[in-house]
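Most newcomers find our protein records easier to grasp once they have seen one. A record pairs a protein's sequence with a compact description of its fold. An example says more than a description, so a record of this kind follows:
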Amino acid sequence: MLQTADDLGKLLLRIAVGVLMLMHGIPKVVGGIGFVKNLLASHDLPTWLGYFVYAGEVVAPILLLVGFYTRAAGLVVAVNMVVAIALAHGGQIFSVTKNGAWSLELQGLFLVGGLVIALIGAGRFSAGGKAGTLN
């Protein structure tokens, strides 16, 4: 019973992070990554790096939902959020909203969620099951 609850918790975390992150990636698939390229250019970085946003916001979330290469996908989500925070939200790291909440709580949740998934794996309710170090 305890193992089943543990695996259900892993599944729910994967679904939450996967669906919510994918909702950030779909508009980039449909509308392009012009914003991301402009952001990279403003930091004197090559704009072709912008295509990696698809890995962090489309491919990795799909892998999380399916439960395949889950640990790697969680790490990709976390790295994606570190880059997003550094490039787009660097000035907000220590700021709070008018209600007293951390300005980057959503980004922080994605970052920590990705790290936790990378550490705990997919669980048995996944395409990869419990087999392998990447699940």
